Amino acid sequence: MTDAATPDAPTVTVKLEYVSAVAIGVNEESGALPASIMACVALIDGAALDPSKVVFVITGDFVESVRSRLPADLRHLYHATRGGGIVGGKTMGVGHGVHVIVPSFCFEDVAEPGFDYAERDKLVQRMVLHEAQHVTMLQAREDGALTRAGEGEARWNFLACADSVISEYRAEAGVPVSHRPELFSWSPDEVLMQLRSDLGRIATVEYQSHLDVRKFAYDVVTEAQTAWKLLGNIVAARVVGGIAADAAFGADVEASVEWKLMGAPHWRQFAAILAGVPSSEVRIAADDLSAARNLLADLFDEWLVTLGFKWSDADQTFRVISWRLYE
Asked: At what angle do helices 35-47 and 117-139 cross, to 10 degrees?
């Protein structure tokens, strides 16, 4: 693991893990970072309330770098696959600081003739700007403050999902149009199609191999949360773009089976709750997000039933109540 100097923005520390400095373009003689990295540092520096407590981690092993910062009992649960894609970056509170972690391939040379490095830099900077919003919220103590207060396991998980989706929405809503190569990067029917596939795999293949009901519940809700975050990003893009959050989608989306069965029943309420939450640019007390969090947790409880599952604290069960999406 290597620390690299950031002469143009000394308040944010750049740390390299599982990758050589040369591999990401650091000057061997001067130690100067390439412009592509410095641009990301500047975005984080501009968003952070206290840049001196922020570490920008560039890693050749993204999963291991994230796991090493998690509590030991949670490390094995983390993976980088999300909704058919992979995580581009992660922001974590570590001790009294904040670490923004990105994979080194964002800055490495590509053995492909004519590769468009300028386009890649735009996409990476857009992702880093999103992560920088999480830095702002963490340092303002608006993120990561949710604590369990006697809730049953099901309710606690729905609240945790809601808290995570709200945080993701606020960060995404803080990314201006000027840093969005395209206003929309996700299609709701595609998000739900992937969710349908993932939940089918979990229920019919993975659960059958281990028969651990608690793990089954966790896996199902984790995949649903991934989809809810992506759908929340669509709401954020609409808000930023000046489009009504609950406006109808195109005919192809509205006609899809996944949208009709998995998304449409809850979309208007979901969009309305999130659209009422301020972006990361607005400071708000963490407690003032509790109403939206509770409403969203209630909605996720209902939405899970629509997806064919019921998690109940009353009788402490998690069960499949409908197979129609997975047959």
From this structure: 20
Query: What is the chain's alpha carbon radius of gyration, rounded to the nearest angstrom?
Result: 20
The secondary structure of residue 75, as a DSSP letter, is: G
Pair 318, 304: CB distance under 8 Å: no
DSSP-based three-state secondary structure for 119: helix
Dump pLDDT digits (tens) for 52-108: 999 999 999 999 999 999 988 877 777 766 544 566 899 999 999 999 999 999 999
- Cα–Cα dist 272/288, whole Å: 17
Contacts 24+ apart (CB under 8 A), 266-273: 266/299, 266/302, 266/303, 266/306, 267/188, 267/231, 269/299, 270/228, 270/231, 270/232, 270/235, 270/296, 270/299, 270/303, 271/235, 271/238, 271/245, 271/246, 272/245, 272/246, 273/299
How many whole angstroms separate alpha carbon 7 and alpha carbon 27?
13
In this prediction the pTM is 0.91
- Rounded Cα distance, 175 and 142, in Å: 17
